Amino acid sequence: MGSVAGVQELCLGANVFGWTADRDSSFAVLDAFVDAGGSMIDTADSYMWRAPGNSGGESETILGEWMAARGNRDRIVLATKVGSLPDRKGLSGDNIAAAARDSLRRLRTDRIDLYWAHRDDPDTAQEETLDAFDALVRDGSVRAIGASNFSADRIRSALEISSRDSLTAFTAVQPHYNLMERDEFETVLAPLIESEQLACFPYYALAKGFLTGKYRPGGAATDSPRAEGARAYLDSRGQAVLAGLDEIAAGHEVPVASVALAWLAAQPAITAPIASARTTDQLGEILPMRTLALTDDERRLLAYLSATS
Ligand SMILES: NC(=O)c1ccc[n+]([C@@H]2O[C@H](COP(=O)([O-])OP(=O)(O)OC[C@H]3O[C@@H](n4cnc5c(N)ncnc54)[C@H](OP(=O)(O)O)[C@@H]3O)[C@@H](O)[C@H]2O)c1
Predict the structure, then answer these.
(1) Does residue 114 lie within any of the structural domains?
(2) 104: domain range?
(3) Would strands 199-200 and 274-275 be described as parallel, antiparallel, or unpaired?
(4) Atom of ligand 1 nearest to the CA of 174
(5) What's the CATH code of the domain at 119?
């Protein structure tokens, strides 16, 4: 991912495409993202098999159609994942090879820039998984590999195997981390990421929409499939975080969502947060994070308000 001086990168989450965003809305969000200078997009073969009428691969298909229509594949840093689609579950060697072929076909491309293991697979030897990823890197269909939802111990053992067997190593991690979910990342994963110099792209950067400020006590219902998960944060800690975000957003004259993302982007060990938008209006509230620099006091206030103990 190229970086521009003074700009904090955002990785655009693609799980909305073919789910809460139809093809036209998806194209509009993607166009607006690249027009604003964005380049990295995070999808998965499993997005979004759970949605009614879907079977998986819908997000990759829309992305493939959009890149073909715009002729912009070379401008995009394309990340997808293997391991969570019910028909292609796990990280066995055969499954990774087959899933990569499927993803490349749907994405209409000859390469995946960053290929994620979507979640750990304790039933497959890590040697087998890393062999399969290494073969994809050697044949040019994958540029780099990463581990999502892995424990620190399993990242460490994978790195040891890659080093011992001269196999392509994980160079990126994708954990669940945001202002409302800090403990495990900050205490266990961040030290490993820093010592191993891994890239880190936290997902649910907006806590499923909670950190946009649209969920408030007594607030109106939304049609979002994320609403239940987001509303669960609306306890006294969540309300304190929203009050802090409101105050800082007003001071900078920017939307609340961009403050939450700017805080995350400025945390140690973070390369770029991953967040999604189902409309260009939503994206418009997120993008100011790219140039929003919070003061030390503002970052400390949000850390204080969101601390669990
Ligand atoms: N590795 C993994 O296991 C894993 C797991 C989950 C996600 N991810 C990745 O992370 C990405 C982000 O996750 P996510 O999209 O589920 O959660 P998120 O980024 O925390 O929340 C994004 C959602 O918040 C709402 N939103 C965004 N901007 C808004 C605004 N300005 N105003 C009001 N609402 C707004 C939208 O949902 P609504 O309009 O529906 O409310 C949007 O889809 C995914 O696309 C995926 O790439 C990875």
Answers:
(1) yes
(2) 11-174
(3) unpaired
(4) 1
(5) 3.20.20.100
